[in-house]
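ESCALATION

Customer reports they have been waiting on this structure for their group meeting. Please prioritize. Original submission:
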Amino acid sequence: MSELRQLKEGDLIESFLALQDASLQTSARGSYYIRMTLADATASLPANFWDATPDIYASIKAGEVVKVRAVAETYRGSLQLKVDKIRPAHESEVDPSSFLPSTLADVIALENELRALIASIADADYKRLLEAFFNDPEIWNKFKLAPAAKQNHHAYLGGLLEHTMSLARLADMFCKTSQTPLNRDLLLTGAFLHDIGKIDELSVSSSISYSDVGSLIGHLNIGVLMVHDRCRNLENFPELKKTLVMHLILSHHGKFEYGSPVLPATPEALALHHIDNLDAKTVAARKQIDEDPDPEAHWTQRSWMLETRLFKVAPTPIQPAIPQPVNKSTQEQVPADDHASSGQAGSSKQPAPTPGSSLFD
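Update from on-call: job pushed to the front of the queue and completed.
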């Protein structure tokens, strides 16, 4: 099975792919075509199936796996697929989850780190609230596999755990280094629970999509309802502490136009908003650079999330060792300035698949 990220113009592909979306369109000459997005665990690409029929369109469904034969072509500087055969895959042929990328992080190590940070919380109420979530096997099994987004940042299996732990580390570090007194226990609780609603907002099959409840309510409201329910089941949980945690969840997007129904109104809420923004946008920026379709260009295409193009900084070449000057009076070396250097591993490329027995025969 060829990986989409390795395709170049002119390559043929005949493979199982996840159909992320599809729509039936009419061309300028009046014929039908299907505009779609196809994906595997490595990348997603726009695709077109020309001279389609309503019956072919009705036979495929977004969110499911299809068998495709296509050629890679470039359109307006971006790679896309020109499909000439497509059909739905049978359940026995594929595992839908294999078409989704997964975190490269050590999930067991992340879990251990998460539980150690929870154990470090001094406030008994915030600690028992977190334990009510993360000691629940049903919630934990969903949480550790959930993506953090559909496409912009941490959009892969385990992405929510990875993103949450990034925020927890940043929150912990900020509380230890900031000259401003902050409630570390509250901020850590907010970091752990800020996106908890995503375990029900996002649906995972062969692609990541929004569930019905996610589309109707959204993860901020889902998360607040989850906190309310668990606080109700915890004996004598203080109302003010519950309200402060709910405020952190509702306000962490930072602006009304970004989906928060209230603006951050405590120092901890402001801190959570900015560390969430920092992690999400830097990860999105790295993804935009890594997945840019033109490796020769100095700039990426415009990012909808970041509202700008990004400059693709070349890796610093490894410099030869610089001889250090010697103090002749002592024959001791005089330290030179340290120079950080970095390298970037090249990506391996597989040859395009050769024609063989067709998946459609």
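Sent to customer with the following note: The chain has two domains: 4-96, 100-287.
Escalation resolved.
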